[in-house]
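Q: Hi! First time asking for a complex rather than a single chain. Here are the components, and I think there are two in total. Is that enough to go on?
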Amino acid sequence: MALIMYDLAGAQANRRFSPFCWRIRLAIAHKGLEVETVPWRFTEKAAIAFSGQDRVPVLVDDGKTVAGSWKIASHLEEKYPQRPSLFGGAVGIALARFVEGWNDNVVQGGMVRLILIDVFAHIHEKDRAYFRESREKRLGMTIEQACAGREERVAGFRSSLEPLRTTLRLQPFVAGESPNYADYIVFGSFMWARSTSPFSLLTPDDPIYDWRKRMLDRFEFALQALGYDA
Amino acid sequence: MALIMYDLAGAQANRRFSPFCWRIRLAIAHKGLEVETVPWRFTEKAAIAFSGQDRVPVLVDDGKTVAGSWKIASHLEEKYPQRPSLFGGAVGIALARFVEGWNDNVVQGGMVRLILIDVFAHIHEKDRAYFRESREKRLGMTIEQACAGREERVAGFRSSLEPLRTTLRLQPFVAGESPNYADYIVFGSFMWARSTSPFSLLTPDDPIYDWRKRMLDRFEFALQALGYDA
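A: Yes, that's all I need. Here is the structure of the assembled complex.
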């Protein structure tokens, strides 16, 4: 039986933009498994109440429900050990946690103030009030204020990516010769941007730009997903 | 035959403060090997000319010379595979590169402007002109200017450590249940500070403070090394 994943969608049902859901779609592809995704909007809490919490990704695997990207990745690694490893062992798991901490703070945290206004433009009508209120409360400013001056501020964002750039000058993927969950964490954030925003986060001379292209070339469903080639 | 390592020293021969040399002393201890360290100063280029370059650490292992912290760590891992692994496999090596990129940019790069004036105070008389000139050229300002206002700026440094903090809330070491080279990279920077500076980089309520203590408790020679308990 194919896996079922509840996947955040925008105004268009095939606009899938959650960075956490992207991590899992890539992890599932890494394992060579098939998944059926169910489009889900922020306010459809009832549809995933069976998972005991109110956010996606939610995975249903042969009757077992798992929620949250890290827990789902761990589940996939444990349940399908004979398939390509997502982490490369105990040290790989521990260091992927560090990559996650860095990504969520620096990459995803930095992108919020560059693309949130574009994310908002693609939110489903019924989610718009919820999205604005929850994000503005978290940021302490309006969505429009959060993204003001982004043309000037993007230089600081690019500079903050230097640790990733240094790594990708030495090896083709974060995890070495081929990508693993550490790459999917970071690439998931770039898919969040790609699926919602025409704003250019990277310049073509950046090793990170080349890495993003290598990832898109490897994962056809990411390359073909509804979004912007920015 | 014991390993021999050329190790940066200050005005006092037993003040060892190079973060890169610390990484290797910890890596050697991890492998359960013995090392004889040779105190070395910046201007003693002739003493390590045999290594074909002019910086430490330089390791001499049974007649073979290896220079540079990453190359030495790789050498130790390859030459002593039956001893505890420094990296935990291919993915561990690749992700340690990312930790190195982050540490060198954020941790060590951030510490420069907080402790350099204290490092300078411990430099050997014959290295002082070289040290001041090379560092001031790199920074584009005097050592004194670089460290001005550090009491106010340390908050920004602490905030920049959030990815490490997030990781250490989830597990005792960067590499998981026990430390490996990823920990030694970051801890080497903290040993650079400990061996030269009374300035408090961390607050006692910080998970990173606890990790640093765990590392000191594990490596008696680091705990006992000449320095400051800041």
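A: The CA atoms of residues 171 and 177 of chain A lie 7 Å apart. Let me know if you'd like any chain examined more closely.
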